[in-house]
Q: What sequence folds into this?
């Protein structure tokens, strides 16, 4: 039985196969519409979500399966004090696969160790978000044609942003990728990512504060939201929240084929005037998220 707790749980080869499957699903959805008949996914979300939960549910429904679950800790027995280990043992009796989001780092890993069904980490605290990474990879591959040889700028909350952590880990396995890490000093990537992923693998990276200084050299700009819920005090959040605002003036300085990605939700970091720019790829990215989750469900259930 396989789980997906970190993007590195799939080898590069398996990841590429999954992306090929996701592409085939996008081109021939009818071929897959009965693949999961009789199967259920449980979406266990202890933290708010719109895209991730609904895209898992939509993915399973597109495959002909069905969905059970809860969308907040308050509406589950966690509010009565039940542990994640007990909850997953119970869910294993009801469903064939589980997608779990939790505010505590490592909670889906604890669940996986007690589970008799595959567990997918749908975001654990400020740690990892592997299915967003698969979504980001599909988006980059579909837009650029390959996952090698490009410069990516990651901008915003690189400290608490789990999508950033997972994406850096994943892209460090491809060749010719240069990272430009754009953040205020307080929101730089954690030391563990800088030391154990970037430096340890001799990957080219720079850390800068001003987006304007580097935007002309980027092939991909990955914008992120300042993660309000992970701040210890409101004052720091308020000081940091509008540090970056991508607008038409900044887009004018970028390459004509520099795509803009964002895991969403957006707050103020991308002005809505950018939405009509053909390089804005963040809503397309959401659609790719459904295809990769369909491919992932099929893969983990051995139905691919
Ligand atoms: C991200 C998350 O939950 O980490 N959202 C998502 O799943 N697409 C990013 C965020 O909340 O800022």
A:
């Amino acid at each position: 039985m396989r789980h997906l707790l970190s993007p590195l749980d799939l080898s590069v080869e398996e990841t590429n196969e999954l992306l090929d499957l996701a592409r085939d699903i996008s081109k021939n959805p009818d071929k897959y519409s009965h693949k999961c008949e009789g199967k259920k996914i449980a979406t266990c979300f202890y933290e708010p979500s719109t895209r991730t939960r609904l895209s898992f549910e939509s993915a399973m429904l597109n495959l002909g399966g069905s969905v059970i679950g809860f969308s907040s800790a308050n509406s589950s027995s966690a509010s009565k004090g039940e542990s994640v280990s007990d909850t997953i043992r119970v869910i294993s009796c009801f469903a064939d696969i589980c997608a779990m989001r939790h505010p505590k780092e490592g909670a889906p890993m604890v669940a996986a160790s007690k589970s008799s069904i595959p567990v997918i980490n749908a975001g654990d605290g400020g740690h990892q978000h592997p299915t967003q990474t698969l979504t980001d990879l599909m988006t980059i591959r579909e837009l650029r044609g390959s996952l090698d040889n490009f410069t990516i700028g990651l901008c915003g909350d690189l400290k608490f942003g789990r999508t950033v952590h997972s994406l850096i880990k994943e892209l460090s396995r491809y060749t010719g990728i240069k990272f430009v890490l754009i953040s205020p000093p307080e929101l730089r990537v954690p030391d563990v990512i800088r030391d154990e992923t970037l430096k340890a693998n001799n990957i080219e990276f720079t850390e800068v504060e001003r987006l304007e200084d580097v935007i002309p050299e980027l092939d991909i700009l990955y914008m992120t939201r300042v993660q309000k819920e992970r701040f210890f005090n409101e004052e720091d959040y308020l000081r940091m929240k509008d540090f970056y605002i991508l607008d038409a003036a900044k887009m004018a300085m970028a390459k004509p084929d520099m795509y803009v990605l964002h895991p969403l939700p957006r707050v103020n970091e991308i002005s809505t005037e950018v939405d009509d720019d053909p390089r804005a790829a963040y809503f397309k990215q959401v659609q790719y998220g459904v295809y990769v989750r369909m491919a992932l469900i099929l893969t983990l259930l051995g139905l691919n």
